[in-house]
From TrEMBL:
GO terms for molecular function: ATP binding; ATP hydrolysis activity; ATPase-coupled transmembrane transporter activity; cobalt ion transmembrane transporter activity. It is found in: Cell membrane. This is Cobalt ECF transporter T component CbiQ. One of its GO terms (cellular component) is ATP-binding cassette (ABC) transporter complex. Keywords: ATP-binding, Cell membrane, Membrane, Nucleotide-binding, Translocase, Transmembrane, Transmembrane helix, Transport. It comes from Cohnella lupini.
């Protein structure tokens, strides 16, 4: 970190002296202007000394200061060598027949001191201000917002490219790539060319996904003011400001127009060229339900999510969202009611601070600054990230980025939220917190669909399960489906873990606990039943231990929950 010339993160242990980045920027700009104006050697020398002391006082490492001074060397050397010989005045000395003047020497020293002063000031600014924050504070000095957004977006791509390059490089090294003698090997150059090609393709794919995420949050639309919701012939027009969190009461004046389903998928087919990703899929998602979308890799889950969010249109059949058929001309508007949290948060986060990113969607809804702030605060609080709202998202851990991505969608107050593999990369506590968050969302009446491979989570959480395989719907129904042996085998899933011990007990095979609480209650009932009844279940392959059962039944006079 100490060697960094441009810092992305704030240097640890460094105190900025001036707390607000825009004040810092203004102070440095004013001091830079003074440095340009002043020509007195003594004043410049004293100011350089003071700046140096202040930098050290801030905790900026001396190595960093010296490292940046080295950058001056080419310019400094130019000034020191040529200026004395090119300035008219009293001769000071002669070298190789060229005369250096006293005025020239003084001018060279002044220019050197100006460079040192400017360099110290910039070192201070860059060391105590993350680059993204610094760029944003340029707004306060009148740099047009559009230009800054463009610079920030380009930087985002630059960092993405760098991240992709680093991860590819690591992967290649872990598979034995080494650079010994690579300078002389034509094979190495060929490999390098291939790697660069793949790197740009990956960065391109990533930028495509970011573009999709931006458009999913209304970032690339023209008119954001009004949205209309149609159901068959009836049309209800609502202000986009209220489009999120629409409830049955909003439709009270037109009870017939309130749709029963968040999504209706009828005989939908979708292909990528010759690859049929979805083939005649049909199901309905009732409003307010909790749906788990499951199936093996390549089953078509992500494709289905793109259709449910109106980002792709079905090639045959139809998709209805809240009663309205998704078409090219209404996709943007319907999408505001359907929030998608993508599997990889890096595909979704593109702003320079956590709060900016979460505010992106609400701003696109045309909300006032106060409303945007209120939504950002509430959404960040609900995912436990309010304390980090001023941080750069690129400095966060994967799990924290996931929370920011969820907050970004929650701030849009969607009626229907889709999460693609939300549990992956979360630590156990993070998973529990996410589950609590999902419960909270459910209580607000939101419809939730989660694409997941996690059978245990789906069994405990979902009301409805959709099982996909090879682009076809194998089954749809309650979470009971996850206990059907033939079905779970066909869908390449496994029996929920909680149900497995019951399978090993004779007479207990039919027990299907969906949560730890249910499992505990079932065990308790089995113990009591075993104590009283001759039809007690026996552990497979074990002798019946009557004494143990009696003891347990004595301990659990009441169900444990
Ligand atoms: N952009 C694309 N171009 C070509 N084929 C694609 C593309 N995206 C997906 N496919 C193909 O469509 C099929 C369904 O893919 P999809 O990503 O929807 O599956 P999935 O169930 O989400 O898989 P996973 O669980 O691995 O994320 C797969 O056979 C996949 O190879």
């Amino acid at each position: 970190m100490a060697k960094a010339i441009i810092t992305l993160h704030e240097t640890e242990g460094v105190s900025p002296l001036i707390a607000k980045p825009s004040h810092r920027l203004w102070t440095v700009l004013i001091l830079l202007a003074l440095t340009v104006i002043l020509w007195q050697t003594s004043v410049l020398a004293v100011s350089a000394g003071i700046f140096l002391l202040l930098l050290l006082w801030c905790g900026i490492p001396i190595q960093l200061i010296l490292g940046r001074m080295l950058l001056l060397l080419p310019f400094g050397a130019g000034a020191a060598i040529f200026i004395p010989f090119h300035t008219e005045g009293i001769k000071a000395f002669e070298l190789f027949g060229f005369a250096a003047t006293e005025e020239g020497l003084e001018r060279a020293i002044v220019i050197l001191l100006k460079l040192v002063n400017a360099n110290l000031l910039l070192t201070y600014l860059l060391a105590v201000t993350p680059l993204f924050v610094l760029l944003r504070s340029l707004r306060s000095v009148g740099v047009p917002a559009v230009l800054l957004e463009l610079i920030l977006l380009m930087m985002r791509y630059f960092f993405l490219l760098r991240e992709e390059a680093v991860s590819m490089f690591k992967a290649q090294r872990s598979r034995g790539m080494n650079f010994k003698g690579w300078l002389w090997s034509s094979r190495a150059y060929k490999r390098f060319g291939e790697l660069m090609g793949v790197l740009f393709l990956r960065a391109y794919e990533r930028s495509k996904r970011i573009y999709i995420a931006m458009s999913a949050r209304g970032g690339l639309e023209g008119d954001t003011k009004m949205a209309s919701k149609t159901d068959g012939e009836a049309t209800v027009t609502v202000d986009a400001r209220n489009a999120g969190g629409t409830s049955a009461e909003d439709y009270a004046g037109d009870a017939g127009a309130f749709p029963e389903f968040a999504a209706e998928v009828k005989n939908v087919t979708f292909s990528y060229g010759k690859i049929k990703a979805l083939n005649g899929v049909s199901f309905n998602i009732p409003i307010g339900s909790k749906v788990a979308l499951m199936g093996p890799n390549g089953a078509g889950k992500s494709t289905l999510i793109s259709l449910l969010n109106g980002l792709e249109l079905s090639q045959a059949g139809e998709v209805r969202l809240f009663g309205e058929v998704v078409r090219r001309d209404n996709g943007d508007r319907l999408r505001r009611r359907v929030g998608v949290v993508y599997q990889d948060p890096d595909d979704q986060i593109f702003s320079t601070s956590v709060e900016e990113d979460v505010a992106f969607g609400p701003r696109n809804l045309g909300l006032s600054a106060d409303e945007v702030e209120e939504r950002v605060d509430t959404a960040l609080a609900s995912v436990g990230m309010r304390d980090m709202k001023r941080r750069s998202p690129f400095e966060l851990s994967y799990g924290q980025k996931r929370r920011v991505a969820i907050a970004g969608v929650l701030a849009m107050k969607p009626d229907f939220i889709i999460l693609d593999e939300p549990m992956s990369f979360l630590d156990p506590k993070g998973r529990d917190e996410l589950q609590a968050l999902l419960d909270g969302m459910r209580q607000t009446g939101m419809t939730i669909l989660i694409a997941t491979h996690d059978v245990d989570f789906a069994a405990e959480w979902a009301d409805h399960v959709l099982l996909l395989k090879d682009g076809k719907l194998l089954a749809s129904g309650t979470a009971e489906l996850l206990f059907e042996d033939d079905l779970i085998e066909e869908a390449s899933l496994h029996l929920p873990r909680l149900a497995r011990p019951f399978r090993l007990l004779r007479g207990a095979e039919e027990h299907r606990p969906r949560s730890v609480k249910q499992a505990a209650q079932m065990i308790w009932r089995l113990i009591v039943k075993g104590n009283d009844s001759t039809a007690a279940p026996k552990p497979d392959g074990l002798a019946e231990d009557r004494e143990t059962k009696q003891r347990l039944a004595g301990v659990y006079k009441q169900p444990p929950y």
